[in-house]
């Protein structure tokens, strides 16, 4: 973290109160523009609202991100409230309730269909409305490379239609009168830092897109690539190198556009974590200090109720420390090993173990980095009824309160 950002975060922590989330929207925009530059216009960028659904953040993203992807009626309303036109919104996710399908249809957004049953329900809805609903069909690949944080391919999944079932199901689905198949969607893995693995996965996508198009007897107008781009959370991880990734991906998309079956399709890169994750921080104040059985413990006002991922409680097998920064250490302060804990009445509320930081005293403010995605919204904010953290956006140094009430 550069010194200017560190000073600004320290100021926010002192003057605005903690715990709080801070998002640097100008950094998000820079990441979007860097991505667009290396991809050379081959993709439209879609932001997955689930990564961070704060409406203020969505408004800040609107000038730079063409599309939004939502996964509930609540997220759909957030996307619309941010000023995004329904025509630029896609609605994905399993187990959509009838009321959500109805809301999606009435809004005019695009619907990502996850199963044959859902396609039939949408067809009935389209017939009742007197006009077919535009859908994308989500495909569940049979394979994917290793080196992804989470893999959804080749296993039973609530997402999409299994690749091996396409020959049976696709011809039947395209005959449904109440839906119009506009294209296909694949998202099979998350948080990958390996450019070779991502490029190999995209090659699988393209092969499956072509197979599905042939089985459906159509030329898709849209193809959604679930990016799976990862960000480093731990000291031994390196950021994804965009130039190396583009060198591998761009020729694939050029070849796709030369394929008669897929040529002319709009390619969409669905992004979430990579865009907003590195631009966000959770600030927490140290409200107490103690030593217990040889361990220096610092008690913080943020816990896993505010950031369940940083506490290692969401899909982590081996607990590892996230990036913590002491925002205003004393000059030449010695580094010491600490256990950092939150305010919750459970021994599970541990934010970091054996983490080395400059000496921490009561009243100091710490920043947890890589927190712009899957932070507050993914955490059990109501547990033990502590106040919900405030949220702030920083745009070219200007600080705006974008706090929302707990849902």
In a nutshell, what does this entry contain?
By secondary structure, this protein is an alpha/beta fold.
Please tag this protein with its features:
407 residues, alpha/beta, TIM Barrel, Lyase, Ornithine Decarboxylase, Chain A, domain 1, 2 domains, 9-stranded mixed beta sheet, 8-stranded parallel barrel, 10 helices, 29% helix, elongated
Task: Walk me through this protein's architecture.
By secondary structure, the protein is an alpha/beta fold. The protein folds into 2 domains: 92-271, TIM Barrel (Alpha-Beta Barrel); 279-401, Lyase, Ornithine Decarboxylase, Chain A, domain 1 (Beta Barrel). The chain is 29% helix and 26% strand. Strands 1, 13, 14, 15, 16, 17, 18, 19 and 20 form a 9-stranded mixed beta sheet that branches. Helix 6 links the parallel strand 5 and strand 6 (133-140). Helix 2 packs across helix 9 and helix 8 (195-216) packs parallel to helix 9 (242-258). The model has no long low-confidence stretch (mean pLDDT 94).
């Amino acid at each position: 973290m550069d010194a200017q950002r560190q000073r600004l975060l320290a100021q926010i922590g002192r003057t605005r109160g903690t715990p709080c989330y801070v998002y640097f929207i100008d950094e998000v925009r820079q990441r979007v523009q860097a991505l667009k530059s290396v991809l050379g216009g081959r993709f439209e960028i879609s932001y997955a609202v689930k990564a961070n659904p704060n409406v203020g953040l969505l408004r800040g993203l609107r000038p730079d991100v063409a599309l939004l992807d939502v996964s509930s009626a609540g997220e759909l309303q957030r996307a619309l409230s941010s000023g995004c036109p329904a025509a630029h919104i896609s609605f994905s996710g399993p187990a959509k309730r009838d009321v959500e399908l109805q809301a999606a249809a009435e809004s005019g957004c695009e619907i990502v269909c996850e199963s044959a049953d859902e396609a039939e329900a949408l067809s009935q809805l389209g017939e009742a409305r007197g006009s077919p609903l535009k859908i994308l069909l989500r495909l569940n690949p049979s394979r994917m490379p290793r080196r992804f944080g989470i893999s959804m391919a080749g296993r039973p999944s609530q997402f999409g239609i299994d690749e091996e079932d396409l020959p049976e199901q696709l011809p039947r689905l395209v005959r449904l009168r109440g839906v119009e198949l506009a294209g296909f969607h694949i998202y099979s893995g998350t948080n990958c830092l390996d450019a070779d693995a991502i490029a190999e996965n995209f090659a699988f996508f393209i092969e499956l897109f072509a197979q599905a198009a042939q089985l459906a007897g159509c030329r898709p107008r849209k193809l959604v690539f679930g990016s799976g781009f990862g960000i480093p959370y731990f000291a031994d991880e390196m950021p994804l190198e965009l130039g190396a990734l583009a060198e591998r991906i761009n020729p694939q998309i050029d070849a796709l556009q030369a394929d008669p079956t897929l040529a002319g399709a709009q390619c969409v890169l669905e992004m979430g974590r990579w865009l907003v994750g590195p631009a966000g921080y959770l600030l927490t104040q140290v409200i107490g200090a103690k030593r217990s059985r040889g361990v220096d413990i610092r008690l913080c006002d943020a816990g896993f109720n505010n950031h369940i991922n940083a506490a290692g409680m969401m899909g982590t097998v081996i607990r590892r420390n996230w990036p913590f920064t002491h925002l205003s250490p004393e000059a030449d302060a010695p580094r010491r090993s600490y256990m950092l804990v939150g305010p919750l009445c459970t021994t599970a509320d541990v934010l970091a173990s054996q983490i080395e930081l400059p000496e921490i005293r009561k009243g100091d403010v710490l920043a947890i980095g890589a927190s712009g995605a899957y932070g507050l919204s993914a955490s059990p904010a109501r547990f033990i009824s502590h106040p919900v953290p405030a949220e702030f956006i920083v745009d070219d140094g200007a600080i705006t309160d974008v706090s929302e009430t707990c849902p």
